[in-house]
Amino acid sequence: MMYLILVFLPTLLFSLYAQFKVKSVYGKYSKEPASSGMTGAQAAMTMLRANGLDRKVAIERVDGFLTDHYDPRKKVLRLSSEVYDNSSLAAVGVACHEVGHAIQDAKSYAPLVLRNAVVPTATIGSSLGYILIIAGLFLHMTGLSLVGLILFAAVVVFQIINLPVEFNASARAREMVSNLGIVNGAAEASAVRSVLSAAAMTYVAAAVAALVNLLYYAMMIFGRRE
Q1: Which of 32, 60, 82, 98 is catalytic?
Q2: 98 is catalytic
């Protein structure tokens, strides 16, 4: 109970705040147009072209809210409709952040390479890890719970490795949006920075939540053994 009150609850509140923050900041700057008039797709292409990737990376429109991502396997930048077609400061910031991942991929950025290598195990861990942990505890099979714990640990490793990947992509975006004239002036650059900083908070919250869950599961397993 003390663990839930002192650790889990604050982590949950932080995660909820991070989600609220990114939606709030994105909502604010999605109503402010970039003076360049570029849509998210156009800003992304401008940044890709500046890095010699315009013929190597395709841009596609996808459904959903903030479903934007870069697919390193197919070399495709997928932008949500709201980002793809919108010329707001929020849209160009998100689009250019995703281009940052494409640049990382082209340059074999070490944390990204490592993150991609961990993805298969982390995917299994996120869907199967906690099931094995609970099943092992219920059946009094400590070995099964430990396997689940190891699988779930891969999720934590992924989330931790993901932090420098996301921060670096945002840093690339912040630098290039001004240099390429995608945004103009200190006010617009500050707005993009606010959008990217709010998004970064969600990655931190996800890493903290994964770590807290891992510690909780470990306490359940090793506490049962004593």
Answers
A1: 98
A2: yes
Q: Enumerate the domain spans of the chain.
A: 2-225
Residue, of 220 and 174, whose pLDDT is higher: 174
Q: Cα separation of 198 and 95, whole Å? A: 15
CA nearest to 177, candidates 73, 29, 60: 29
Q: Which residues contact 49 (CB under 8 A, 6 or more apart)?
A: none
186 burial type by CB count under 10 A (0-12 exposed, 13-18 middle, 19+ buried): exposed
Tokens linked to 100: 């940052």
What does the pLDDT look like over 46-96, one tens digit per residue?
999 999 999 999 999 999 988 999 999 999 999 999 999 999 999 999 999
Q: HSE (CB half, 13 Å, CA atoms) of 74?
A: 9
Distance, in Å, from the CA atom of 55 to the CA atom of 62, rounded to the nearest integer, reads 20
Query: Which pLDDT band holds residue 3 (cuts at 50, 70, 90)?
Result: low
Cα 195 to Cα 3, 5, 10, 61, 198, distances in angstroms: 33, 31, 24, 21, 5
Is the pLDDT at 226 greater than 60, yes or no? no
What is the maximum alpha-carbon separation in the chain? Answer: 64
